[in-house]
C-alpha cells in the first residue's frame, strides 16, 4: 500500500518537475536572440495555457474512455512531442511546443490526481495530501535542478532534464492499478 502510494506520488513529482522546468526557463529563451520578445509580448505568450484549461476539464472523460494508465501515457507523450519544438528558433514552433507541454502536463496531472482518490482504499485525504506534497516538491526540485542545468549547460540540457522527468513519470505510470471493485 505504502509502496503504491509512493509510486503514484512520484508521478506527480515528475509532472510538476517537467512543467515548472519548462515554463520557468523558456521565458529566458524567449527574450534572447533569435526570438527577442519584449516584455509585453512575453506576457501574451502565456495564453498558451488556454488549451490546457479546456483539456483539463475533459480529463475525467478521457480517463474513462481510455483508462487512466493509457490516458496518462498519452498525455506525457503529448508533452514529450512538444519538447523538441522548444529548441526551435522560430516563435511559432516554440509556442506550439509550449502548448503541447502545457496540455500534456495539465492533463496528466488531472488524471493522476483523480486516480489517487479512486485508488485509495482508506485514508483518501492522506493519500491525496501525500500526492500533492510530492507534486509541489517536484516543482521546487525541478526549478532548482533544471535552473542549474540551464545556467551551467544551457537550454538544450534543461529540455533534456525535462524529457527525463517525463520518461520517469511514464515508467512509473505502469504502477497505476485501480483496486478491485472500484
Task: Give a structural overview.
The chain is an all-alpha fold and 182 residues long. 80% of the residues lie in helices and 0% in strands. The protein contains eight helices and no strands. It has helices at residues 2-31, 39-45, 50-57, 59-66, 68-82, 91-119, 124-152, 155-173. Helix 5 runs antiparallel to helix 6. It starts with a helix and ends in a 9-residue tail after the last helix. The model has no long low-confidence stretch (mean pLDDT 88).
Brief rundown of the structure:
The protein is mainly alpha-helical and 182 residues long. The protein has eight helices and no strands.
Give the helix tally. Answer: 8
Largest sheet composition: none
Distance between the termini: 16 Å
Give me the strand/helix succession.
HHHHHHHH
Mean pLDDT, to the nearest integer, reads: 88
Quick one: overall form? globular
What portion of the residues fall into strands of 2 or more residues?
under 5%
Rg over CA atoms, rounded to whole Å, is 17 Å
**β-strand number:** 0
Category by helix and strand content: mainly alpha
Helix content: over 70%
